[in-house]
Amino acid sequence: MDLRNAKVLVTGGSSGIGYATARTLLEAGAQVAITGRDETKLHAAAKALKALPIRADVSDPRDVQRMVEETAKAFGAMNVLINNAGIGSFAPLVDLDLADFRRVMDTNVFGAMLAGQAAARHFISAGQGGNIVNIASTAAQRGFANGTAYTASKFALAAMTECWRAELRAHGIRVMQVNPSEVVTEFQSRMGRQQVVNETKLRAQEIAHAIKAMLAMDDRGFIPELTVWATNPK
Ligand SMILES: NC(=O)c1ccc[n+]([C@@H]2O[C@H](COP(=O)([O-])OP(=O)(O)OC[C@H]3O[C@@H](n4cnc5c(N)ncnc54)[C@H](OP(=O)(O)O)[C@@H]3O)[C@@H](O)[C@H]2O)c1
Question: How far apart are CA 129 and CA 123, in angstroms?
């Protein structure tokens, strides 16, 4: 697609990968709305980016419906969903807390489904095709110790991506999945974990670069899945 015609909704655009993606797409000439739950943070991010802020929790069906409607109304249409909002929780199986597992699934799986559903309904009724980019993870490709909740959520997102692709291609909707490896963002500090930060680690802009490249391909083709690794992380 020509990114100057992109009318984009980025869930979780107030920080990290979503923020960098919003900035990269705005620089390419797209119109971009960003969402998040923390209103202060969202408005600060939107002001810095010159993006449209929409306070919305993806796990709330009313918020999800409203965020798609507000994006389409502000831009005259919506043709890209970056399905990015996500959280983590890591614990060994023997200590895993069911409420934490449910919280992760509420955002990463049910929230992603609600956002994908609202976007797909909008794209189908507009009849102009569309793009859904699901931000999964290398945790959607293999399990690891302490990863039960997070990997389960990302494997589920990968499964939904395949189903949506099968359903939506006939409507000219490209459903794509991006699997970042570890990226330096606030993701880990939100869980009280200290991330090792150095110049060898992936930055959010590497993921934004990949997303921009996927979207920029002519609509007749699409990249179903793309994985980004750091070259030599220390
Ligand atoms: N960082 C990594 O190493 C890494 C690697 C692979 C995949 N990913 C994935 O990349 C995505 C973005 O992560 P990130 O690293 O950029 O994390 P981040 O810096 O913590 O950003 C997460 C964003 O999502 C928003 N968010 C969280 N829960 C939400 C909800 N229920 N509804 C709406 N917005 C919500 C946050 O804002 P509020 O808190 O204000 O709502 C924030 O804007 C996630 O899906 C994550 O699983 C990250």
Answer: 6
Q: Which of 185, 193, 201, 226 to mutate to test the pocket of ligand 1 (most atoms within 8 A of CB)?
A: 185
Say if CB 6 and CB 30 are below 8 A apart: yes
Sheet of 7-10: strands edge to edge?
52-55, 31-36, 7-10, 80-83, 130-135, 173-180, 225-228
Domains of the chain: 3-228 (3.40.50.720)
- Which among 32, 37, 90 is the best mutation to test ligand 1's pocket, defined by most ligand atoms within 8 Å of the CB? 37
Unique residue bearing structure tokens 């969402």: 35
What confidence tens digit (pLDDT) does each residue in 94-109 have? 999 999 999 999 999 9
Residues 182, 233 contacting (CB under 8 angstroms): yes
Residue with the nearest Cα to atom 24 of ligand 1? 12
Please, which residues bridge with residue 180 across strands? 228
Q: Which residue has the tokens 């739950």?
A: 37
Using alpha carbons, select from 76, 77, 11, 74 the residue that is nearest to residue 45.
11
List, for residues 157-198, the tens digit of each pLDDT value: 999 999 999 999 999 999 999 999 999 999 999 999 999 999
Which atom of ligand 1 has the smallest separation from the CA of 57? Answer: 32
pTM for the whole thing?
Answer: 0.99
Report the separation in Å between the CA atom of 17 and the middle of ligand 1, taken as the mean of its atom positions. 7
